[in-house]
Specification:
By secondary structure, this protein is of the alpha/beta class. About 40% of the residues lie in helices and about 25% in strands. A five-stranded parallel beta sheet has the order 2-1-5-6-7, with helices on both faces. A two-stranded antiparallel ribbon has the order 3-4.
């Protein structure tokens, strides 16, 4: 049994990336994994996103440790065996809500190294259109030393038949995680 953390970023409910996340989660639960999911894009005004800001040139201001990401998400990530990153493509990159959570990894880089990962991305367009986001995610996986258990880059995700195939792929990756 693995401890799996799923981080999603899309504010669209239901959305195409949510379908991939739901399918992966279903497979992971059927495989009797322990699953924690944080839907960053669905937090709204009650859970604001905290960014690390510079107070002055070269000096950083620490983020208060009284928010949900620090209290709940980071501890789950530290315990996790598998990290799943889910986003729809926004201007050839991941959405801001997921990026905000990833940016919070900074203080824990060493503790978060050497886990396994899964990336689930949806986007309109072709695989060529997904090339930049794929490179971004592969660089993150390499930097964090997170070998992939399987990644899904769902192009033409508006196409229901094609999305169904990608959803099945996400489910199967969840089953083997």
């Amino acid at each position: 049994m693995s401890k799996v953390v799923i981080l999603t970023g899309s504010p669209h409910n239901p959305g195409m990336s949510k379908q991939l996340a739901d399918a992966f989660e279903k497979g992971a639960l059927e495989a009797e994994n322990e699953v924690y999911r944080y839907d960053a894009g669905l937090q709204g005004k009650t859970q604001p996103f905290y960014l690390q800001m510079e107070k002055g040139s070269g000096t950083e201001v620490g983020i208060q440790d009284d928010d949900l990401i620090e209290k709940e998400v980071i501890p789950k990530l530290l315990e996790a065996d598998v990290v799943v990153l889910v986003s729809s493509m926004y201007y050839f990159g991941i959405n801001a809500q997921l990026k905000t959570v990833i940016d919070r990894f900074y203080n824990y880089n060493h503790e978060l190294k050497d886990k396994h990962s899964v990336v689930l991305i949806t986007g309109y367009g072709s695989q060529d259109d997904l090339a930049a986001i794929k490179l971004q995610m592969q660089k993150l996986q390499d930097y964090m030393r997170w070998p992939s258990l399987g990644d899904v880059y769902a192009d033409d995700s508006w196409n229901e038949a094609k999305l169904a195939g990608f959803t099945k792929e996400a489910y199967l990756i969840g089953k083997k995680s």
